[in-house]
Write a structure and sequence with these properties.
Number of helices: 7
Largest sheet: 5 strands, antiparallel
Distance between the termini: 17 Å
Helix content: 25-40%
CATH topology of the largest domain: Phosphatase 2c, domain 1
CATH class of the largest domain: Alpha Beta
CATH superfamily of the largest domain: PPM-type phosphatase domain
CATH architecture of the largest domain: 4-Layer Sandwich
């Protein structure tokens, strides 16, 4: 999985609209056909217009990645409005009511390769759309897993010191989330070096991988990180971590938290690092958050959200719990 940053725009007034639409058009145009670029333009225009017209405060997240050298564009529309009472009714073209995302939702669903909408009264709405250069728009799925990630830089920064990586090795899926100390280029340097080591290691034990990363990043400012390995043969998770990456294994409304060791990878780590073992269960979700996300989120606040794509949950956590004083990452790996 590519470690691609989401670009974020807070939308509070109409003057932002033309700039944002032009930025996205210029980003996707070299990678999609003229027709597909036009359809993306329509979807983005509908999202931005609805945020301006109906939302109390809105944010647009978007990114372009190239898995398997094919373009994959994602856009997430988040608002803090009064929500949509009847989503099925709002899907009809031209339907709109006060303080809701109504107009244009039907066309957004129709033009996207994949799209979902989640809304609650007096909470707001999340709309997620995908556009792929192939027929398979959910390809970010190593092994029997579905992977979704939101990584947003500290406001004002061009790069993020958070980083994620997912890869398949035999019958195992390896997951990495790291946070370089501080933010900006030097934090990114540390996490990039860690990801490079993670992607090229021959180890299959998370504690051994952490030690190898520790040796590789000593010339950087260091980082905190957690590594999870899902063994599809033994049907168990192995998890090891150093520092304050929040780790939760969620299945339904039940969950288990993992407590990492104190330390900084590249500077000082414990001599002995034990790995924790957890039973793998179908539809279980491993959720990893950097410290740019507050830890006290509760799934009970998001009724029925597990029925949706994991990106909706990642966006809900980001919406309500992003600190915005640091880089912000939510990574979710769902067992299928």
């Amino acid at each position: 999985m590519d470690n691609i940053l989401f670009q974020s725009y807070i939308i509070e007034e109409r003057s932002y609209a033309s700039f944002i639409k032009r930025e996205i058009h210029n980003l996707v145009r070299p990678h999609f056909t003229e027709q597909r670029t036009g359809e993306i333009d329509i979807v983005v225009s509908e999202m931005v217009s609805n945020l301006i017209k109906y939302a109390t405060r809105g944010e647009l997240l978007y990114r372009l990645s190239m898995p398997d050298n094919e373009p994959f564009f994602e856009v997430i529309c988040i608002d803090n409005g009064t929500g949509i009472k009847d989503i099925s009714h709002s899907m009809k073209d031209g339907i709109s009511s006060k303080s809701t995302l109504g107009h244009g939702i039907g066309s957004i669903q129709r033009l996207s390769d994949f799209s979902q909408i989640y809304s609650q009264p007096d909470w707001g709405t999340i709309l997620y759309s995908q556009f792929s250069g192939s027929l398979n728009s959910t390809k970010i799925s190593p092994g029997n897993t579905l992977v979704r990630c939101i990584n947003v830089a500290l406001p004002g920064e061009k790069v993020s010191g958070d980083g994620t990586a997912i890869r398949k090795a035999g019958e195992k899926t390896l997951v990495f989330t790291g946070d370089g100390l501080g933010h900006g280029e030097f934090a990114k340097e540390a996490v990039d070096a860690a990801i490079s080591t993670f992607n090229n290691t021959n180890y299959s034990d998370p504690s051994d991988i952490i030690r190898e990363i520790h040796a590789a990043v000593k010339k950087t400012r260091g980082l905190v990180a957690t590594i999870g390995i899902l063994d599809h043969r033994t049907k168990e998770w192995l998890i090891s971590g150093i520092g304050n990456i929040a780790v939760r294994l969620q299945r339904g409304l039940e969950y288990k938290n993992y407590s990492s060791y104190n330390g900084i990878i590249g500077l000082n780590i414990p001599t002995r690092i034990e790995k924790n073992r957890y039973e793998m269960e179908k539809f279980q979700q491993l959720i990893l958050c950097s410290d740019g996300i507050k830890t006290r989120w509760d799934l009970l606040h998001y009724p029925s959200i597990l029925k949706y794509d994991p990106m909706i949950l990642a966006a809900a956590i980001y919406k309500d719990h992003a600190r915005r004083t640091d880089d912000m990452t939510v990574l979710i790996v769902k067992v299928l």
